[in-house]
Amino acid sequence: MMTHTGPSRPVIHRFLLIACLVTTMLLPGSKTLAQYITLPSESHAEAYENYGIDGYENYAREIISRKLYDNFGNFLVEGFPVYTLRHNPIIPGGSSLGKSRQYLIYFQNLIVSQDRYKGFSSSFIIGDAIRTRFSPHILNKARFNGIRWDGFTGKNNFSFISSRLSDPIAMPLDLSVSVPQVTTRNYSWATYLLGGTWRTEIGDVLNLTGSYVNIFQTEAASDRPKNSLTGAVTPINVTSGHFVIRIADDSPDPGEVANGAILYERPLVKVSGSLATDSTTATPFSYFIIPIQEPNGYPVDIAGERVEEIHYELPPGTKRVQVTMTLSNDYSVEAYQTYPVPAAGDVRTGYTQSQLVARADGNVKDQSNKRQVSFDYGLNTGKTIYGLAAEANLLGFHLNGEYDVSRLHRKFPDPDGFITDQAASSWYLQTKRDMGKFTIGAEFFDMNPNFGSDLTLMNGADSSTYYFSLVDDNDDNDRYADGSMIIGPGPYGYSAGNILNPYNSTTWISSAALASFNDEYYIANQNEVYDAQLPRPDAGIFPGVDENNDGVPDDDQNSNGEPDYAEPFMMFYRDPQRFDFGDDWNNNDVIDSRENDILPDYLYRPDSKGHHVFASFHPGRNLELTAGTMRQEAISFQGKNYSDYLKFSYYLQKPTLGRLQFGYIGKRVQDNIPDPGFQYQESAVGYTMLYNTNSTLYYQNSVAHSYFAMLGYDQIPNLVIEGKMKFDQNQRYLPDRIRKESTHIGDVGYYGFVFPKVSYRLPLSETIDVLLQYKRREEKREEKTLDPNTLSFVTDLKYDRRWSIPIIRFNYKLTEKTQLRMGYQGFSTKNIWDKLDDKGVLSYRYRDFKDPRNDFNKQIFLGTVANHTQYGGYELWLQVGFQTETVRYVDPEVAELKDSENIKIIVEVVAGY
């Protein structure tokens, strides 16, 4: 038996543990690995702090900051995310876009990052409203919402852009209080835009610009997402749906019963695909299918507004549909699908957007264009547009031209569906040369009917139809587009008061009626259609009505939503746009500088081709003579706009004579292309509203003349005398007939006259002055048409009206900062015998010679106290006052119903810098 003489094992263990602890504590810079059991983290070991000197800073509420790192793990900054865009195609909601409250409040929806290196400089921009323009036919956006990178080297410049077009999140500046900390929206189906432009200068004579943009739909969270720049397609359940071919007359005449689109035989429809036999194999198939609904016999003549539809039942597993058919005359062919949609325990029928797949050129009636038409059916998935523009100075000529191609991508609605492309082009060339007193010029253009910078997509998330356009309808060229097209109800919301069908109707469409159509509609931009309760900078400045460039519409200088030419006192300075003079190339009786149409702002009308040649002579600095000829044709229908014209203009301004302006335009016109647009409509009492007019074809075969004269004299101190006159005459003849007396079918005449327009300022003292004003305005329009029964002309008086507007205004300077302002427009409506003062020159009178029941007299008094001061660093104007208005109608029966007396109270405060 052995005896153990050393220390016991527990004693040795305790000795080693103590030695290790002492050694660890003595090591320099060592860090203990153990912690007290009462303190889970060193970050909580904070000492007492006293805020007596430095004060106390509260916890952050608006900015929740944290340490931020990049995708490599590099520390960036302690702060907060501002903007995030991510796309992951393999997870639900893979398209993620987020904008923080700081993006809105601190950066005002715009972030700009800049850098320079030697001769290169660049700007990286993220914003909600970036003015972006590549070319007039590819991309032109007043409020591009996305990302833009610009590089500049002097001779070579470039821009790259990107945006999630589907819900790019527009942060509302006027609703910042309600915006959450971060606004993030995720989608499994999203539409993106990628694009770029490059510009180079070659010497001093040539500039070249190449542009490329691509719109494409993407899909996330699919078992096999198939995303490319051609886009992903919305899958459609075809188990019990139909494939439909829709044939119609491309130029329908409601009374036409024959010689329309002719379909000679049953269309050949071939389907291809594969049917899964089990989980691992599939059996391919390809065969022709028989329609389940078709015409009773062939050939079939589809004339007028009649539509013929042929229905087919598609087999499961279909991946491709090929169609071949024989057609002639003016045909239009569309294709769409119906499909079952589960709805509240039931199944309803869904419809894809009808796709235009073929159409005839012109309006053929004699079957001379008989041909075989073939197409592959598919839904839109994306569009690619690219082009090259050139600007040069060569041999004294200034040249400007562009050639563009748009490629529409389609795919049969199945992840493995067949892909097709439809290409279309547009081009134009402009040239001009100045030769002393002469200028010659020409332009040539061709806009293919299928060319466009817009795209309609059926979204896979909810099968809604989305419309995207890369070229704005922005006729006034301000910061807000005038409006845009939508298809069906659309993704952006609507109301019955701001949507119309621009092609089938001139009336506003209710939301209930809108939801039942599969057609194009126009929705007005509510920022652009002026709202007096929510005024926007330069919004509502329709074409040509901001001549003083102050950012406020000339027709509404006091920003109250009512055109000045229909408003008391303000009507002295403005007249309706009918009194204006200028070119009217599309012959819709609205001069082009005032026109507000509903089309994207391409340089030339879509679906048209032609040329224009002109020459000008400038014998003097203020005198110009121009002669020219224009030939424009609509490609897809038998439309044309032929015009030969002569223009004369003269302007003179001399101290002894004042200002004189004369103008004349005479033209021989044949125009049967409709050009609808927006115009103001007036009632007898002067109230106006914006409405759509589907312009009547008054110039199908016409000789038209327009005369204009304006004068102004202000050489006598405090006295200004002005006047203007405009006279339009349109001699109309039978369309496509020789112009002679036997083909004369009527005339349209317009007469507008303003004279006298007199203003005299009478200063009574340093603090009081009086302004005396008088204006007389009248206008008349009548149309004469030939009665086919009596062969005599019948006159239709559209309107004949006159205004007599006397005004007296007083201005009394109470103090340096306060003024008393009073004014009368019309000084009596009744004489001393309590009868209507119908002849007194001091009455404000309106006379309607077409309907005298609208005749009335008015007396208006306006009084205000205006104070101008400075407050809080702002220039402050306070106006307080009231207005009285007395209206007396001439017709006693009307007077009993409409005579009125009104009082308006005015309190207004405006502030500025």
Describe the protein's architecture and organization:
With 913 residues, the chain is mainly β. It is built from four helices and 47 strands. The protein is globular, with a radius of gyration of 36 Å. The longest helix is centred in the first third of the chain and has 18 residues. Strand 44 and strand 45 form a beta hairpin.
How many angstroms does the end-to-end distance come to?
109 Å
Q: What structural class do the secondary elements suggest?
A: mainly beta
Round the mean pLDDT to the nearest integer and report it: 82
**Gyration radius, to the nearest Å?**
36 Å
Unreliable residue stretches:
1-6, 24-33, 489-498, 504-517, 684-688
Beta-strand percentage? over 45%
Please, how many helices?
Answer: 4
Helix proportion of residues, in percent?
A: under 10%
Largest sheet: 24 strands, antiparallel
Coarse shape: globular
In total, the number of strands is 47
Short description:
The chain has 913 residues and is mainly β.
Secondary structure blueprint with pairings:
Layout lengths: L8 H18 L39 E4 L5 E5 L3 E5 L7 E6 H5 L4 E8 L2 E16 L3 E14 L3 E9 L17 E6 L1 E14 L3 E14 L22 E8 L11 E3 L4 E9 L5 E8 L10 E3 L4 E7 L4 E11 L2 E13 L2 E6 L3 E5 L11 E6 L2 E16 L2 E15 L7 E17 L2 E10 L6 E5 L6 E5 L13 E5 L11 E2 L10 H5 L4 E5 L83 E13 L2 E12 L4 E16 L3 E14 L5 E6 L5 E6 L8 E12 L5 E15 L10 E20 L4 E20 L4 E22 L4 E8 L18 E5 L7 E16 L2 E16 L2 H7 L1 E13 L1
